[in-house]
Amino acid sequence: MYLIIPGLFEEGGDITKSSSMINLSGMLGLGYSKDKFKNVIIVEEEKKIIIDIYKTYLRKDVKTYSDVSKRIVSKYGEVINGKRITESRIGLILKDEKYLGKVYRKDFEGNVYEFDIGKIIDDELWNEVLEKRNKVKIVNKNVVKKNYLLKGKVNCGCCGSNMWIKRGGKNTNGVQWSYYYCNNIFRKKRYEKKFNAYVVKENTFRKNKQVDLVEYEKMYGKFTNCSNVKSNTISVSKLEELVWVSLYDFLLLNDKIKNEYKIRFEEKLGSKDKFSGKLKYYKEKLSKEKDKKMLMYDRWLEGKVTDEDKKDYDLRNDGIVNEIKGKVKSIQSELDNINNNVSVDSYIDLMKSDIKNELNVKRFEDRKRVIDKYVRSVKVKLLNYNTKMKEYEIIIELFNDNIKHKIRLNDKLGYHLKTDLAERKGFEPSIPR
User: Fold this and answer.
1) Which residues, 6 or more positions from 206, have their beta carbon under 8 angstroms from its beta carbon?
2) 0.85 cut: is pTM over it?
3) Are 233 and 181 in contact (CB under 8 A)?
4) Distance between CA atoms of 367 and 303, rounded to whole angstroms?
5) C-alpha to C-alpha distance for 150 and 243, rounded to whole angstroms
């Protein structure tokens, strides 16, 4: 949005105007201001800082916007003329083409106007920064974002906070060690660093409410006094495998799933009787058509039916018989399919068979689909920690299930499920050691 001074845009006139003739509304950002006539002017003090930001980004030892932010804050302070220097602001400054001296505005008829507001960054410096930003973008695109089987479902068993994932350590065979940890302490430190006294006092949104601790907790959840051991860390791969190999046993206890399979089993038995009755009906009908044909032949041999009538009858009879045979074949196929599916003694056997098949998948995408279908949340609590082993209590909650399935995991001793549940016939999980 911009305001046009009367007479500024005469028909056939030059659409490029100097900053001294411009009346622009809206935020201008670091480097520019308005005079008493609301015309855009360059703030020389801020111009020097903008140029310094661009040159700092080009340093070889600077890799990120955060690196630039730290250096600029150290040199000029955290707040410059009421504008706070943050990593995100640095990123916006390094991408903002207005520092080349031109801004563009469109009127209600779709006409685009170019305004000269005064150049702060020369073309050579801009192009060098652009080249580095593009190189960094390519590097970031080549970094594969890893997905996780239990993403968004893991909570701290001590305080209930979400558990985040950190990756680090030696990269072995393309696999980097990763672990879940309680994010409560990290979130507190980040809040204290980002929302200092200046921000709480000056920064407002949500109908001009100050972003103090109360407002922050409304947005991102409350901080807790978590009493976890060693940030409650647990290996991502071990937790994922533990949940996966436990899922079979827990699904067999789910009343909702049991009821669904009971209904399915009974419906299939009912369908079997239904198709058996239809098959019997059409076989009897086929037999009757054969009897009619034999009766017709007897009457033809006795001379009571002409050759032409016999020929017409044969054509009609063949059509009826072929139609009945087609229905018999179709019904027999349906019945065979039902017999194969109901070759179990009970709905529990049917449920076991289906769940085993569902959990015997290997691809990550297939396992993720199963986890998202059944698992509501996983709570992790590190009970004991020493140089030899870690002992955990894991609570797995399924959708539509009132049971909280508890497991004890001894990290260095492998997987052990303290329960007396169904056998895993035909289901061979790979267990991390």
Assistant:
1) 215
2) no
3) yes
4) 75
5) 9
Mean pLDDT of the chain: 76
For 222-286, the three-class secondary structure string (H helix, E strand, C coil) is CCCCCCCCHHHCEEHHHHHHHHHHHHHHHHHCCHHHHHHHHHHHHHHHHHHHHHHHHHHHHHHHH
Beta-bridge partner residues of 154:
378
Q: Which residue has the tokens 């409304």?
A: 218
- The DSSP result for 351-391, as a single string, is HHHHHHHHHT--SHHHHHHHHHHHEEEEEEEEEEE-SS-EE
Kind and range of the H or E run holding 312:
helix 307-341
User: How far is 114 from 16, CA to CA, in rounded Å?
Assistant: 5
Return the amino acid letter for 161.
S
Q: pLDDT tens, 220-253?
A: 677 777 887 777 888 898 899 888 888 888 888 8
pLDDT tens digits, 319-374? 888 888 888 888 777 666 655 554 445 667 767 777 787 788 888 888 898 899 88
Query: Using CB atoms within 10 A of its CB, is residue 102 exposed (0-12), middle (13-18) or buried (19+)?
Result: middle
Q: Distance of alpha carbon 320 from its chain centroid, rounded?
A: 57
> If 0-12 CB within 10 Å is exposed, 13-18 middle and 19+ buried, where does residue 414 land?
exposed
* Rounded CA separation 149/432 (Å): 15
Structure tokens given for 158: 């001590």
